[in-house]
Design brief:
It is built from six helices and five strands. It is mostly helical and about 200 residues long. Keywords: Signal.
Length: about 200
């Protein structure tokens, strides 16, 4: 019993320290960057990723160990497993921006804070690269596996990793409500900032 109490205290202290560190280091997407004056392919793609980043920031802000362990049914992913999946999707988005091949990732040894920070930074870096482009056709999505390499056009980036990650952010929000820690209702996805 005593070990369980000590372990629980250590988990809460680790979470508190992670959240304190997180607020000390400014993570991207507390709010969406200002919109550009002109519409371009790159600006529109970047704005989609910025919208995803904002949703992810607030979907994951202040999650507790209980929230991360929550799963709505035995067959469903936990919130942590969903966050891991979003991290993988953010890596696919970033690799497309960097013209890198996706060959699989292993993020299991990272803490929740490290995964959150990496996901947000992946999205910000990709958005900044897309924002400067006049031709999204250069950003293919390339997967390398046992059966060879498959290349897909940027269209698949939109309906694939970007849209899928947005979908999963909604799941995290739903799961955290179910585990008793609702999403900050002042985070306006329409305006891309906190309501005052």
């Amino acid at each position: 019993m005593k070990h369980r109490i000590v372990l629980t205290l250590m988990i809460y202290m680790n979470l508190f320290m992670s959240q304190a560190q997180e607020h000390y280091e400014a993570l991207p997407y507390f709010q969406i960057p200002e919109a550009p004056e002109a519409y371009s392919q790159g600006a529109i793609a970047a704005r989609m990723v910025d919208g995803l980043g904002f949703r992810y920031y607030w979907a994951t802000e202040g999650l507790s160990p209980e929230d991360l362990a929550f799963r709505p049914s035995p067959e469903a992913r936990t919130s942590q497993e969903t966050i891991d999946h979003i991290l993988g999707l953010s890596t696919v988005i970033l690799n497309s921006a960097l013209h890198k091949t996706n060959e699989g990732n292993d993020f299991k040894d990272l803490s929740f804070y490290e995964k959150r920070k990496l996901t947000l930074n992946n999205l910000k870096t990709a958005a900044d690269i897309f924002r400067e482009s006049d031709d999204l056709a250069e950003f293919t999505v390339v997967f390398k596996g046992k059966n060879g390499t498959n290349t897909f056009p940027f269209w698949n980036q939109i309906n694939g990793p970007i849209s899928d990650a947005i979908w999963h952010c909604g799941q995290v929000v739903s799961f955290r409500r179910s585990s008793g820690n609702p999403y900050n209702s002042n985070a306006s996805v329409f305006m891309g900032r906190l309501r005052e």
